[in-house]
Amino acid sequence: MNIVVIGAGGIGAYYGMILHEVGCGITFVARGENLVYLKENKLKMTHPNYIIEDKINTLSIEELTALNPENFDAVIIATKAMSTQSISKSLASWIEKSSSSKIPYYISLQNGVENEDVMCEYYPRDFVIGGLTRLIVSHTVELGHVHCSGEVQTLVGALNHTNENNVFLEKLKTTLDKTQTTTFICENIKLELWNKLIINNGVNAICALIEEESGPLLENEKTAKLIYELMREAALASNAVGVNLSQADADKMFELMKTFQSVKPSMWVDTQNNRDLELDEICGVVIKNCEKQGIDAPYTRTIATILEYTYNRKRTKLV
To answer: How far, in Å, are 113, 161, 245, 247, 295 from residue 238 at the CA level?
Structure first.
């Protein structure tokens, strides 16, 4: 398979490198210093159980869209969720160059539950694949070096099920099954995305705010109560879009989270590296969808507001 991976950070670099290792033709799309570095140097991906290091073809989004889309089977988007719209606009123009109905499948491996809806505004719905990763911790250690840990599970599913995209998903799973990961094809990927949002809303912002990993916060009775309420509010929010998760689902995710290895969530890493935070895409979605039902999300609103305020104050001082 020939696969484009947009975003060569923690998640993008991990999937690009494991797919390269099993024989896929990988093209990274990057920007800034990452683009400059990867055009000339190898990318190193380390995991406690394996190391993959190689020079991978890397392009800018403009260089990619100058190529023929028919040469690629899939595009994996592994950027921050706030980039989904601009990338989708670029790919909408790109696939217009196809002289046939053969265009790449468009796969999201991102945080949040709205990426696929945005993608569908610009890309044929039958070719949009929702996806998520779990049991993986992956961060950029330094330019050209990404470190990952965890057993790594991938969940993917079509928004509209067709014979064609079912065949593609089986082929993708067969390819990923050659790597040291586990892949599941989901009938209802929206449900799984919201289940992950329950976990993300539970730990991402609060860990960044307190500057502590998830494990110690879950072991402390008082902070564990905050995490539980954050997760419960995310389950409530799902009812606004027909996913209809319940308190029992939040209970299940909370108990599951306590069995995971302690993690340093992405928002905390982003605050340490002066990057934009996915607050709107995680906490904001919960607040918005609770409001649609005439209810508040006080725990989510409080944690997100304090984190946003203190982080923006810190960034202002750095300028």
So the answer is: 10, 22, 6, 11, 13
Which residues 6+ apart lie within 8 Å of 50 measured at CB? 180
The dihedral over CA atoms of 64, 70, 72, 73, expressed in degrees to the nearest 10, equals 140
Q: What is the pTM of this model?
A: 0.94
- Decide: 102 and 70 in contact? Cβ < 8 Å: yes
Regions of the chain short of the pLDDT cut 50: none
Rounded distance, CA 3 to CA 27, Å? 6
C-alpha gyration radius of the chain: 19
Q: Which two tokens stand for residue 187?
A: 């009938």
For position 101, what pLDDT does the model report? 79
Dmax (CA) of the chain: 60
The string of pLDDT tens digits covering residues 49-64 is 999 999 999 999 999 9
Tell me the backbone φ, ψ of residue 76, rounded to 5 degrees.
Answer: -100, 125
Tokens of 183: 């892949």
Q: CA 50, CA 142: separation in Å to the nearest integer?
A: 18
Q: Which token pair is 62?
A: 């403009």
Sheet harboring 153-158: ordered strands across? Answer: 57-59, 25-29, 2-6, 74-77, 105-108, 128-134, 153-158, 182-185
Beta bridge mates, 27: 4, 57
The closest of 100, 83, 103 to 92, measured between CA atoms, is: 103
Asked if residue 148 lies in contact with residue 136, where contact means CB atoms within 8 angstroms, the answer is yes
